[in-house]
Amino acid sequence: MKDNIMTKAKVLISDKMDPKAAEIFAERGCDVDVITGQTPTELMEIIGDYEGLAIRSSTKVTPEILAAATQLKVIGRAGIGVDNVDIPAASSQGVVVMNTPFGNSITTAEHAIAMMFALARQLPVADASTQQGKWEKSRFMGVELTGKTLGLIGAGNIGSIVASRALGLKMKIVAFDPFLTPERAIEIGVEKVDLDGVLAKADFITLHTPLTDQTRNILSAENLAKTKKGVRIINCARGGLIDEAALKDALDRGQVGGAALDVFATEPAKESPLFGTENFICTPHLGASTSEAQVNVAIQVAEQMADYLVNGGVINALNMPSLSAEEAPKLKPYMTLAEKLGSMVGQLASDDLHNISIEVEGAAADLNIKPITGAVLSGFMRRYSDTVNMVNAPYLAKERGLEVSEIRHEREGTYQTLVRVTVQTSQGDRSVAGTLFGHNVPRLVEMFGIKIEADLDGHMLYIVNEDTPGFIGRVGTALGEAGLNIGTFHLGRRVAGGEAVLLLSIDDAISEAALSAVHALDGVKIVKHLQF
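Predicted structure:
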């Protein structure tokens, strides 16, 4: 087994990237290899040696590649789009997938504005005509952008930058984005409308949305028919957002007055029905192609991946909660506590559970709860699989139909901070709760309604018994006869003489024979071997 403390994390850069990425990995304590231009077979042969994989758009991370990547912990995409990464396959294998959504935002937004100007003033064809010596001044009658309505499909990071530039051009802006709040719309100076509102009002339409099942062909033949006649359309986001055959037809009929595409459904786009169409211009996916953007995304992906591999920070992850390098040290003891509580519930509950609740109160309520939830699920889902971590645990939980709820309590009770995990069983709700001693030592403080304080570590025995004199001695004798040494001993009960709970730490795993011997003791109702 590798010593993760002494051994540096190994990172592979498999696509051409600014050299500063490799420098940052080395500076931050990672071993890095730069091996580009590999075939999928060649990549599969070496990927098993690496914990990190830094890519751009050339490397295709398929399920087959992931299956060979037995040590892989993180994939970093230097750029926004991750169409070349099978995220569900990565998630199921417990691999974090990151992108760099801000490194090329300005560059991409500026390219969209440039394409809009090029359409409005017919710059490419006017340039070609003039260089042929034709001087066709009267042929190229353009339109002003001032006073025109720009329709945004997608008003996130890049869309909002486009909006700010368009406002400077004195354009009116309408935006469709399901995640755009009314407050944010006011902040960025746009009118929030539905998709039909954009189609009906816009003189120019720009797309700034990821390619998903919901957005694929969002500008279909049906939606293109709803646009204002003569609308001009710009797409510098992702190929596949526009039905290219329908766009060709709309251009031919004059329904669409012009289109500018930087992206295509199939790339490289060596052929397209749009090529040669009047009022159509295109570029070969240049949205992020500036020297500044290339440097920015390379630096960002290296910093993010190194923070994760060295410090546990998770930034711009697409398949797990983000956790900055600054947050990680503060949240780490909470996540350790949460994972132990989740593991305990998972080991003790015998039902096929369908609901789990994570509650935080006191100091924990002021923290980012998502990593705490991820840690609970990581511990809990080990009842189904040994290869579970914070990445694939939510994925596996969803796959099994587990409903997860998160609850914050602003109150502060007996403890300065508390995390509680509750599951619904056939016998009713069952919960365990824990706190941090000295702000960093995880400790169980309640179990199934019984107050009990215990460290959860190593091998432990959980015993439910009738609270009778001499019982503790009998347990000690049974374990002694089995050659097992007791490390710590923790007892809790509701009332004297009633039902008691005993948690013992033992130095080694208990055999089935010894477990049976303890179960056979008078007064024992339940006995289970736990491991943390």
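Summary: The chain has a mean pLDDT of 90.
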